[in-house]
Each structure stands twice: as C-alpha cells, then as structure tokens.
Amino acid sequence: MKQGLLIVVSGPSGTGKGTVCGKLLAETPQLAYSISATTRQPREGEIDGENYYFISREKFEEEIAAGGFLEYADVYGNYYGTPLKKIEERLNAGQDILLEIDTQGALNVMKKCPEGIFIFLLPPSMAELERRIRGRGSETTETLARRMGAAKAEIAAGRKYTYVVVNTTVNMAVKNIQSILIAEHSRVDRNDDAFDI
Amino acid sequence: MKQGLLIVVSGPSGTGKGTVCGKLLAETPQLAYSISATTRQPREGEIDGENYYFISREKFEEEIAAGGFLEYADVYGNYYGTPLKKIEERLNAGQDILLEIDTQGALNVMKKCPEGIFIFLLPPSMAELERRIRGRGSETTETLARRMGAAKAEIAAGRKYTYVVVNTTVNMAVKNIQSILIAEHSRVDRNDDAFDI
What we know:
By secondary structure, chain A is of the alpha/beta class.
C-alpha cells in the first residue's frame, strides 16, 4: 500500500483558507480532513470520531505527556489537538490527510513530521486581505489593526514552508494545491515499486 | 523576472516520450523546446536558430573544449548538443525549457544543472513496452531484444531522477508533468518576492 501524504495548509486569517480547503476536499477524492481531538462538549449533531474525537481533559493531558499529539492548542480553555496515532493509521492506509492549522502548529508539525507537505496560502496583497477582513463587517479599527498585525507575523513564518500558493481565485488556488499533491505523489523516492517492471 | 525551469524528460525508447512531449508543449504556453546545436547539414525547410543551431564541426569542438554544452553526443558522425549559454539566456528571461534526452545525457545535466527538474517517463509494463516497440513493425527478433535490453538499462537509471510518470495514457502523463511544473513553480525558494506584500 502506498503511503498517504500529510498536507499542511496555513495562511493568515482572511486569506480564504477555509473556502479553498473545503473546495479542495470536495474535488479531491483521495484527500480527507484530519479529525481533531478536543475537550470541548459535542454540539448538537456532532458525531464522535467523525467531527471530532471527544475526550476528557484528563485523557487529553495524558496524551500530551505521552507525546500523542502532532500539535495541539488551548483555545479559550478547551484543548484541540491532532492525534498522531490516528493520522499515522490513515496515512499507512494510503489516505492523504489535510491539516488546516496556523503557523505555530505547523512549525511543530515540521519538527515531528518533516515528510509532510507544507503549503502556505497568501492573499494577493495586504490591501486585498484588509478588504476581505473588513468585508466580514464585524471589525472595529482596533481589532482590524490587530488582525492585520497577526497576518504579517503569519506571512513571515510562511517563508519556512515548502510551497506557496497565492489565493487570487479559489479555483486557481485549488488547482495549484492539487498539482502539488500530484507532483509529490510522483516523486521517485515515493515510487520505488514503479521501477520493478 | 522569475527564472524559468529546465525540465528534463527521459524514458526508454517506445515509452511514447515524443508524443507526450509534443502534446505537453502544445498545451503549455510557457514551455518551449530546447534548441540543439548540430554539425549536420540543414534539411530542406529547416531554419537556423529555430529547428537547430547549425554550426561547423570545428566550432562545435571549440565549444566542447570551452564547456559550452550542457550535454552533447556524437550520433552517427554528427554532433548534437545543448548550448548552455542559449539555455541560460532563455531561463533568465523566464522561459521554461524542455529537454528531451536519454539518461546518459540527463545524468550529465544533473551534474551541471542540479536545479533542473528531472522527470522519467515509464511504460505501464515491460509487456506493454514490447507491444509498443513491435507495433512499429520494423523490428527483427535481434533488434527487439537489443531494444528491450537498452530499455531496462534506461529504466534502472531512472531511479536517479526526481519524478516518475507512468505513461498509461498520453493525457494523464501530460497532466502529471504539467502538475509537476506548477508545483515546482510554487516552491517557496523560487518565490521570495511573493512574501513581500
């Protein structure tokens, strides 16, 4: 069985990462989202093992101590993390896994899983990013300034990724990421068996 | 100006390399064939600087001595070679260049131009390769055996390439190579300026 690829996509908030990843998943059958573990309560309709792995705070902290997460974060008092073992099982079964995380999480994944494919999504310009953030309509001058500052820090970290895709249009960005997947699957070092003909 | 990519495609005779490269060029506007220098006489309708650079034997050997060829070969008493300076000029102008050469030439290019993109085209199987070679109808048992032996040696050298594409169908092979070009153009180390936004 050919090993699946771990695809890590990051980009500053407002780049349209969610839209791009949603369309990418819908149009790429062999690619599936990573399922996170969390300590927050399930919301109505959420299914354990499908939307999240819902686990207790105690269990989560045990797993942290055991090095069981590829990356994790504490968000407003709830833990969210990527369970290493579950990811490895799915990669070994030939499944490509998409991980949509911030640069801080991604830099940790780079250390634990350097064979991952790290893709940074850029907005076409800072002016366009600002326009997209303003478009959501819920920003004050202060929160806008804070988000633009955070975006600049994320973009600086993006230089540590392997690939960069500019999200000029969602379709182009999806096509570029799909091309990166095809290319990475075509690497000779992942296709030893292809030469045994 | 963003630097163009040097794309080197090899594959055993009978793989359908010529058909794949022809279609790839027709469907990829930013990609152009490398123009070889040769000492053979121009045939009717051939234009200097378009089909080939036609040069004298003396000039060709001067260029060999000066290290002016990325690779060259003596084919039935005529020299053919890839002029390094011409390639560099076109790459610097942002043009992607396609070089369709055998593995011996490609291994030389790897040394002189390690930043090139080396793609090996495989037949789906040795049986299919034999069928394709037989299909040309001009093989004796002896020449067939010789060509199959040469194909095996070429395939063994293919493990030194970066990418492998199986030519199951021409369309799929072309799409895979185009994906490799898109992915390579998306590498962060080729897009420093994209982060200066």
